[in-house]
Design goal:
The protein has helices at about 200-205, 250-255, 260-275, and strands spanning about 40-45, 50-55, 65-70, 75-80, 80-90, 90-95, 100-105, 110-120, 130-135, 170-180, 185-190, 220, 230-235, 245-250. The chain is elongated, with a radius of gyration of 26 Å. The longest helix has 16 residues, at about 260-275. About 15% of the residues are buried. The protein is mainly β. It is built from three helices and 14 strands. Residues about 280-288 have low confidence and may be disordered.
Length: about 290
C-alpha cells in the first residue's frame, strides 16, 4: 500500500441500487461505449402496507447511507441477528453489512430511495448518491419524484456506522506481556485466555454459576439482561492477533434450557479421566 494517504482511498465510478443507476458519461474514458440513459431500479408499493427490506452494502470499501425520502425506517436486525428495533432516517452500512428494515409508505406520493457514500476517509463515489424509484399505488412507470433527501449524519472522517446509544459499554484492551518463561503473550484487560474444558461455561450457567472471579483466564463477561451492548476494542500491538472472550447474555434464560444428559456425562467422564491422567496442555506461564 502506498504511503501517500490520498492514494489509499480510491473513489468508485458509480453507486448502484439493485444493479441500476444512470451514469455521467462525461466521466467515461474517451471512445468507450456509455449510455447516459440507464434506468433506475423501481419498487412498487401500496400506501399503508408494511414492507420488510434487506439493505446490503455489496461494495468493497464504501460506507453507505441508505434512506427513503420523507420516511423513517425501523431497523430490526443487523447481519441476520435480531436487535431491539429502533427508528432512523438513514441506515449506515459498512462494507458487507446487512440490515433488515421495516418501511411503511405513508401517502400516495412516490419518493426516491437513496444510497449515498459517506465518510471523508472512506472510498467515495463520483456520482453518489444512487437513486431508485419507489412507486406508490398506481403511479406511472415514468414518474420522477420531486422529494428531497434526508440530511446525512455529521461527517467525523471515520468509516463507522452510528448505532443508537447502548445500555452498557464494555472496554476491551489488548496488550502483550512476557511471562515467567520469557515467552510473549497477548492479554485482554490484563488476562490471557485459558479454557477449562472440564467446566464448560454454558453448563455452568445452566447450574446458575454466572461469576468466575477465581478464573479470570476464562475471560467471561456477564452482560446479564442488557438490551444492547457496545464493545470497544483497542489493540495496542503492532500486529493483529486473535484472542477469545465469552460474552454471556440473559443467563437466567439459560437455566430454562434442556441439555442432553450425554453432554453433562461427557464432561463428568472427562473430569474423572484428567484427575487420574496427565493431559498434554499449554500452560500460559503467567506467574500468580
Amino acid at each position: 500500500m502506498s504511503t501517500n494517504a490520498t492514494l489509499q482511498t480510491q473513489p468508485t465510478d458509480n453507486t448502484l441500487i439493485n444493479g441500476r443507476m444512470p451514469y455521467n458519461c462525461t466521466r467515461a474514458p474517451s471512445g468507450s461505449d456509455c449510455s447516459p440513459n440507464a434506468p433506475f431500479s423501481k419498487f412498487r408499493v401500496q400506501a399503508g402496507k408494511t414492507y420488510k427490506l434487506r439493505a446490503i452494502n455489496a461494495g468493497a470499501g464504501s460506507l453507505l447511507g441508505f434512506s427513503i425520502d420523507n420516511h423513517e425506517l425501523t431497523i430490526v436486525a443487523n447481519d441476520f441477528v435480531d436487535i431491539e428495533p429502533y427508528k432512523t432516517t438513514m441506515v449506515i452500512l459498512g462494507a458487507g453489512q446487512r440490515s433488515d428494515l421495516i418501511f411503511t409508505p405513508k401517502t400516495n406520493e412516490s419518493v426516491w430511495m437513496r444510497a449515498q457514500s459517506l465518510g471523508r476517509g472512506c472510498s467515495r463515489s463520483f456520482d453518489s448518491p444512487a437513486r431508485a424509484l419507489v412507486l406508490v399505488n398506481n403511479a406511472s412507470e415514468s414518474t420522477i419524484p420531486v422529494t428531497t433527501s434526508w440530511p446525512p449524519p455529521p461527517d467525523d472522517g471515520q468509516c463507522a456506522n452510528t448505532p443508537p446509544d447502548p445500555s452498557v459499554t464494555y472496554d476491551l484492551t489488548i496488550n502483550s506481556i512476557f511471562n515467567e518463561t520469557g515467552h510473549r503473550l497477548f492479554v485482554m484487560n490484563g488476562s490471557p485466555f485459558q479454557a477449562n474444558y472440564n467446566h464448560p461455561i454454558l453448563l455452568l450457567a445452566d447450574q446458575k454459576n454466572y461469576s468466575y472471579p477465581f478464573d479470570p483466564q476464562w475471560n467471561v463477561v456477564n452482560f446479564d439482561t442488557n438490551s444492547s451492548i457496545r464493545v470497544n476494542i483497542w489493540n495496542n500491538n503492532s500486529a493483529p492477533h486473535g484472542l477469545s472472550a465469552t460474552y454471556m447474555e440473559r443467563p437466567l434464560d439459560i437455566t430454562e434450557l434442556e441439555f442432553p444428559p450425554d453432554v453433562q456425562q461427557t464432561c463428568t467422564d472427562w473430569n474423572a479421566y484428567t484427575n487420574e491422567n496427565v493431559v498434554d496442555q499449554i500452560d500460559s506461564g503467567v506467574k500468580e
